[in-house]
Specification:
The chain is built from 22 helices and 23 strands. By secondary structure, it is an alpha+beta fold. The chain has three domains: about 40 residues; about 190 residues, Penicillin-binding protein 2a (Domain 2); about 300 residues, 3-Layer(aba) Sandwich (Beta-lactamase), CATH 3.40.710. A hairpin with a 5-residue loop joins β8 and β9.
Length: about 625
């Protein structure tokens, strides 16, 4: 009995009671603290997961903005299209064979798409199949109870109501890549995004804003009803429409003339820098990127040796050849090195050391106007040496060479010019050899330019000294203000005297209209065309250049035609320009010889022409 009493005293000791109280208090603090953390600090997380099971967000896709040509004609718009999505959190993998049977797709293809976006939240719908046929939509709806996590959403696909393709101007849309998705929080897996052309450079304006619709779902993830009577829904906002400077009739004519050749044509309004037409050949059909995109077609385009997806107008750099000579003449006149009456003797060539630099003929003593007309190399060899590299660089940059034009298209290349920095790397403190300077005088050597740069340069000569930023979009229709808002572009007046441009224009007029001019086959009745041919040396057949503007007094169009491996400038490029101008000025139906659709020889046609499907 005493032991029991002793045990009872031990059990009832105050020390033991205190230990039990502390333990109970500690457990209570732990539970209460954990509850507080779950409720206060992590409440949003758990609430979101709860709502994800009870409330589902359905993204409402906006329609992309439309595009209109310079005359207000609708050329790009949209139509509704069904897209299938899979939400991995709700998807039952055992139903994959049924889904594949309905879609007529291989299961590995669907798995691959889901694997590509494996790092994306499992609650985010992944777009699997676009432009779904209505018969397949009906089957998926019929098996809705079984295909948990599979949904159909309404998107849009591009429609093209135009005769020309305008492929490199409009560009194309394509599902966003997993790499792009990492840096673009607005988009979800499978979203369509502009990849090239205006679709890319005006993506933010064209894409619109997504909406959200909240719906209640049951424990199987099936839709039950709208949530909160739709009061929390956010409507989608369609993209802004854009208005282009492109003349689609002129564009269509140019594309047809280019068919079968590799090259580019750019037409600019010299009064404001608006691009009237821009074509690169070969090209592609943007309709192939509307809705479902065939992997076979895409692969064939990117692997084609003629590079049809490459925009030669803004991305290809060529030696400008004799089309560069106006710049050399302007520089020499403006610097006072020559004047209108200065004559330089051409004996058919000049000799520097052991090397002879030839001309097209022996022109005798000639002034700058005649030198432009007959494209005398010796005259411009001499100007290259008299100007020197520093002044050549100065005037090249003044006219925008060696830098981007900042046209509103992506992936533009700046071309290249010889600079003092380049010379220092090449020759150190020594003078630039004269052999280099004579080459620069005729647009060869380290000089290269894009057809767009050459069109901008020609437009600047046409308007006598204002360099306009070339552009393709005139205005954007703001859906929020319901107003068409014009876009402002840069321009600058060059520090060159007006009378110098008068001299240059007269020389260019003689090229086309004067006896012995190098491009008399580009002349038009009643329209004063001013132009300049160019032949750029190349491995194989030379490239053919022609730049021009018209009319001489009040120019409305400046044009650059560049044909790869087209030979002399007056063989292909000049006659092609004539047909373009003939169409632009809506000349009568008087017979116009079709020079340019006849290749120079069968071998050239076989080597350089590219069949293009209408």
């Amino acid at each position: 009995m005493e032991r029991i009493s002793l045990a009872g005293e031990i059990f009832d000791s105050k020390k033991r009671q205190l230990i039990y109280k502390i333990m109970i208090a500690a457990f209570a603090v732990i539970f209460i603290g954990r509850l507080a953390i779950m409720q206060l600090l992590q409440g949003d997380i758990y609430r979101a997961e709860t709502e994800t099971q009870a409330i589902k967000q359905v993204v409402i896709e906006p329609f992309r903005g439309n595009m209109f040509d310079r005359y207000g004609r609708l050329i790009v718009h949209n139509e509704p299209s069904f897209t299938l999505t899979i939400t991995r959190s709700d998807f039952v993998w055992e139903t994959l064979p049924l889904l594949c049977q309905i879609l007529e797709k291989d299961s590995n293809e669907i798995k691959q798409i889901l694997y590509e976006y494996r790092t994306v939240s499992k609650f985010t719908p992944i777009k699997i199949y676009k432009d779904l046929e209505f018969s397949k939509v009906a089957l998926i709806e019929e098996y809705n109870d079984i295909l948990s996590g599979v949904d159909i959403i309404v998107e849009s696909k591009r429609l093209y109501d135009l005769q020309p393709r305008l492929a490199h101007v409009l560009g194309y849309n394509k599902p966003i890549s997993s790499f792009q998705l990492q840096s673009m929080s607005y988009y979800r897996p499978g979203d369509i995004i502009g990849q090239t052309g205006l679709e890319s450079s005006y993506e933010e304006q064209l894409r619109g804003s997504k909406g959200v619709k909240y719906i209640a779902v049951n424990k199987y993830g099936q839709k039950v009803s709208s949530f909160d009577n739709g009061r929390r829904d956010i409507p989608a906002s369609n993209g802004f429409d854009i208005y282009l400077t492109i003349d689609t009739d002129l564009q269509n004519k140019i594309e047809r003339l280019l068919r079968g050749w590799r090259g580019a044509v750019v037409a600019i309004d010299p009064n404001n820098g608006e691009i009237l037409a821009m074509a690169s050949s070969p090209d592609f059909d943007p309709r192939n990127f509307s809705g479902k995109i065939s992997s076979d077609i895409y692969t064939s385009l990117v692997t084609n040796k003629y590079a049809p997806m490459y925009n030669r107008a803004t991305m290809s750099k060529y030696s400008p050849g004799s089309t560069w000579k106006m710049l050399m003449a302007i520089a020499a006149l403006n610097e006072g090195i020559i004047d209108e009456k200065t004559k330089i003797r051409c004996n058919g060539s000049i000799k520097l050391g052991f090397r002879t630099f030839k001309c097209h003929g022996a022109h005798g003593p000639i002034n700058v106007r005649t030198a432009l007309k007959v494209s005398c190399n010796v005259f411009f060899y001499e100007l290259g040496m008299r100007l020197g590299l520093e002044k050549i660089e100065k005037y090249s940059r003044m006219f925008g060479f060696g830098q981007k034009t900042y046209v509103d298209l992506p992936d533009e290349k700046p071309g290249s010019i010889p600079t003092l920095e380049w010379a220092e790397k090449m020759f150190g403190d020594a003078e630039v050899p004269k052999g280099y300077l004579v080459n620069f005088g005729i647009g060869q050597g380290e000089v290269s330019a894009t057809p767009l740069q050459m069109a901008q340069y020609t437009a600047t000569i046409a308007n006598k000294g204002t360099l306009y930023q070339p552009h393709i979009v005139r205005a954007v229709h703001n859906n929020f203000t319901d107003k068409k808002e014009p876009i402002a572009y840069d321009s600058r007046k060059l520090p060159i005297r007006k009378e110098i441009f008068d001299i240059i224009q007269k020389g260019m007029y003689d090229v086309v209209n004067g006896y012995g001019g190098t491009a008399t086959n580009a002349s038009l009745p009643k329209i004063k065309v001013c132009g300049k041919t160019g032949t750029a040396q190349n491995i194989g057949r030379d490239h053919s250049w022609f730049v021009c503007f018209a009319p001489m007094d009040k120019p409305k169009i400046a044009l650059c035609v560049m044909i790869e491996n087209g030979g002399f400038g007056n063989e292909i490029a000049a006659p092609m320009a004539r047909q373009i101008l003939w169409h632009y000025f809506k000349m009568d139906t008087l017979y116009l010889p079709n020079y340019i659709n006849r290749p120079v020889s069968d071998s050239v046609a076989a080597d350089y022409s590219v069949p293009i499907r209408d």
